[in-house]
Amino acid sequence: MRARSHYAALFLLLAAFAGGCLTSASASQPGPSCTGKHIFIGVRGSGEHAGFGDTIGAVKHRLGRTASGFTEFESIDYVAVNVMDPRLWGMYDASYAQGVEQLTNALYLNNRQCANNSYGIAGYSQGADVVAGTLNNLWKSSSAVDRHLGVQIDAVSLLGDPRYNSKDVAVATVAHKRAIPILAVLPSTHGGVRPVFPKALTAKVRSWCLPKDLVCDLAPATAIACATPSHLCKKLLATQISYHLAYEKTGYTTSAADWLAHKTRGPIVPSATSPPVRPAPSDAPYVGDWHGTLLQDKTQNYTIDVHYTGGHRGEKVATVSYPTLGCSGQWLLTQASARAIVVREEITKNSHCIPEVDITLTPLGQGTLDYKVSTPAIVTGQLHRR
To answer: By C-alpha distance, which of 230, 133, 107 is closest to 190?
Structure first.
């Protein structure tokens, strides 16, 4: 992933202050014969210890000791890279991307067990960035399963969001008139103030920003004073960092938990006589014979036939032929997640075809796979089970 350089400028200042194998899973939805559960998922902030971390741990603790309606509690296992360590600044982008992938996978795997589950999700600091990014991705996706998951998310609590938008009046619960989130002042393709959430999501999301929090309410005076390292810069940073660490002490974690409980107390799907649907074998969405028509660079059409037998990462999992082109070869599994797989295609017959490409296959349900190649040519299409 691209290294996210936008934290570098800020944490040069912080340094002065301080130093004086996933398996593939089907995207098809199980039937309704399962008991839906209210599941809380928490995403910790930068540098916090494994699990929920202190801040989201406080949200979980309140939910667990009140009549919140939640019956299961899960934390997202991702790097949550400690951006206070200058050696790790360049890893934020990869850490964020991993968090989004892990949260999405957790939702997919729970959905595979029972599509009637509902979710309350909380994120703090980097975790808030991960949660908001995931929610927007699901909502904007063309995948029916992604959109289903977006609907099943009842409520989201964000604490200390580094892209906090005080003008998103339906979402921002501490609407400072001039709140400046840290990613709005540091250069980044991902940064800037978070766009206003779509109208359909405003009833689901609440975002808390403690005034003077360095991450979501960077004071202009701090930015000016820290243009060069100074004693005043260290003093202002110390003050603003202390606010970022004070969400439990100031009661905002209680507010975040109560919001989730309020939105998730509705009745869950009644229990049915049959047990929850168990995940299918990892190769189930892909195993079999497939045929499709592909479009390359928006100009050339040709057909494809695939015999997918399955296997582990690094192994041959399929044979492939392109009848129109007279090429054939094999697929090796290189990546697998709950949403899709990536295979490396190696052409072994007829060298005028591209010798090697990486292909992403995404189950769309109803015996259909989405096929996509991004480089060295753009190839898209759908494969249909024979």
So the answer is: 133
Between CA 183 and CA 8 the distance in angstroms is 11
Look at strands 356-365 and 368-373 and give their pairing: antiparallel
C-alpha distance across the termini of the chain, in Å: 36
Largest Cα–Cα distance in the chain?
71
Per-residue pLDDT of 51-81, as tens digits, reads 999 999 999 999 988 878 899 999 999 988 8
Cα separation, 208 vs 164, in Å, equals 8
Q: Would you state the pLDDT for residue 87?
A: 65
Helix pair angle (92-113, 126-140), 10° resolution: 50
Residue 372 pairs in a beta bridge with: 360, 380
Q: What are the tens digits of pLDDT across the range 139-167? A: 999 888 898 899 999 999 999 999 999 88
Angle among Cα 368, 143, 91 to the nearest 5 degrees reads: 115
- DSSP string covering 41-57, please? EEE--TTPPSTTHHHHH
Q: Which pLDDT score, from 0 to 100, does residue 371 have?
A: 93
Asked if 318 and 309 count as a contact pair (C-beta separation under 8 A), the reply is yes
Rounded Cα distance between 288 and 309, Å, is 7
Phi and psi angles of residue 371, each rounded to the nearest 5 degrees, phi first: -115, 130
Of 182, 215, 382, nearest to 290 by C-alpha is 382
- Pick from 133, 206, 155: nearest CA to 38: 155
The whole-number pLDDT of residue 192 equals: 85
91: pLDDT strictly greater than 90: no
Rounded-to-integer distance, Cα 122 and Cα 140, Å: 20
Residues in the chain: 386
H or E segment to which residue 208 belongs: strand 205-208
pLDDT band at 2 (very low <50, low <70, confident <90, very high): very low
What is the structure's pLDDT at 350?
A: 80
Q: Kindly calculate the radius of gyration of the chain based on its CA atoms and give it in whole angstroms.
A: 23
Host H or E run for residue 234? helix 231-244
